[in-house]
Structure formats: C-alpha cells, structure tokens
Amino acid sequence: MADTSGTQLRVGRLLKAHGLKGAIKIELYTDDPDRRFTPGAEFSLQVPGDSPWHGKSLTLRELRWYNGHAVGFFEGVDDRTGAEGLAKAILWVSHVEEEAQEDDAWYDHQLIGLAVIREGEKIGEVSHVDHLPAQDLLIVKTGGGEVMVPFVAAIVPEVDLAAGTVTVTPPPGLFEELPEAEAAAPTAAAPVDAVDSDDAAPADRDE
Q: C-alpha angle with apex 69: 94 to 42, nearest 5 degrees?
C-alpha cells in the first residue's frame, strides 16, 4: 500500500481494462487531470498485499478520453491481462507543499484533529481517514467511541481549516442510538420506505 501519511494525494482509481493493449479506464479524483495525468507522471499504488503490484508504482505513458471517460496507458502494462490485474487499484501522487490546493481537496494530515460540529456543538474530532474504493470515511472519535462518517457533501457540507472544524449533518442514529419510538420496527399498517445508503454519491474530493 502506498504511504498515505499526509505526503500523498489520492487522484484516481483504476476501474477496468479498455481494449486489448493494456489501457485502463480511470475514475478521476482530481479537478485538474491535465496537471496530474501528464506523460511521465508517476503514481504510487494502493493494492492488496498479495497483489504483484504491491509496493510498486505506475508511470503514465498517455491519457486519452473515450466517450467522456478517462483512459490511461501505463509503462509495463501492455495487454488486457496486465490491465485487468490492476483493477480497483487506487492512484496516489506525492504532494508538494508549494502546490496550489484544489477545490474541495484536503490531505489527511489537514483533517486529522479537526473538531466535528453538529448544530453548533462539538461532538468529537477526526482521528483518521479511511480511503475505500467507493468513498472516503472520516473516523470521528466521540465520548461513546469511534463513528464512521461518509465523507460526502450531503453529510459533511463544510470543512473549515482556518477554524479547525468539520461541520456534519448526519442522518438520525449515526452518532447515537435512535429513540425507542423511532427505532421500533414499522408495523404492517405503517410501512416505511427503505433508504439505501449508497444513494448518496461520493463528493468529488481528493484526500
């Protein structure tokens, strides 16, 4: 796994092979692909420990666009089999302090330790950030233990580094048990529509 301890910026995830010559579709986590994905750009890889790519890096040969989707060609990935072996890998780049920060992009070391605010009250602080393929999670330390908060705009509408705060608008029950009346199972006479937590699309943010 790549070193993600504040000197790395997550910029993309490899999705699946494209064609037969080693091309790979990329899900971009950056607002500036022209800067991040230039020929010769080198990426650290976040892959499972048993992957042959574990501890290695990728060098970009070329980035192309097909039907609005980014497709990358990388050194040493010359056929479909090689591309398929990189599916779901997360791409990281080294962060240079002098670089201008992208909109809605925060580094792990900036988020850790921020006070978590709900309705004007502090309810905990960010202890660390988990980077999952689907979305990132803020791990918030509270008096009752750790809470995993999806780092999406609908739940984390504001990050204020100057104030040292993260504002959250969590759904009921995320930070505490639901009141007994609300938690009771619905009866047949009062059906409740199910809510799929995956409906909240991940915010377009870098970590």
A: 20
